[in-house]
Amino acid sequence: MCPLQVHSWKDIGEDKPEHMWRAITDKFDSDDMNHQRDHVLNHMRKLWNNWRGSLHKYVKFKPLHEALKDVPDEVDKSDCEWLVKKYFLSEIFKETSIRNSINRSKLRMPHRTGSKPIREIIYEQAGNDGNPPNMVTIFFETHKKNDTLVEPEAGEKYAEIQELVQSESSLTNIEVVERCFGPQNKSHVIGLGGGITTKELKGGSSSKAAIPAKLNAVGKEKESL
Predict the structure, then answer these.
(1) pTM for this model (two decimals)
(2) Number of domains forming the structure of the chain
(3) 217, part of any domain
(4) I need a surface site. Which of 56, 106, 200, 218 has the fewest CB within 10 A?
């Protein structure tokens, strides 16, 4: 449905996203479905980028002839060959990979969800019934390693969030975030991931987090078949 032999999502053309959106509307329904189109497609773009990026593990530290032999089961051989030769071994990809590694090393409180979207974790923590967990739970679940907060900064921030939520239990998640991290103005809200804007959270919209999480669940069901 979504091609692999492109350098970026913007290169897939207009017909492919439209096809993907029709597949979504055939399976899911919502009162404000049309208003969620851009949001859902943006989430699908991130899933596509994450999944395609995860294929790099089949190539990393291997000579070309070995990388071309190790084709993942879910990837066509011609797609794999293109990814290896035209994408993973390109100078642009190498430079981007190095830059991202350097940036990650500078993070004082990195989330530890891997490629798993934060919204999926919220959904799994009972957010699927319209009652998402509070920021205490969300912060811990997205920053823990073996059920422990390993970075001192994360432990301090967690204690701050706990104290605030306990003293002012009526605060919404976005209010807690802005009290602890400052105003959130972009499409990435600290602790809640990308694609969810401050405006949407302050407006009380929870459905936008539900459909992308369900997309992840459906994808996992298909992988297990």
Answers:
(1) 0.56
(2) 2
(3) no
(4) 106
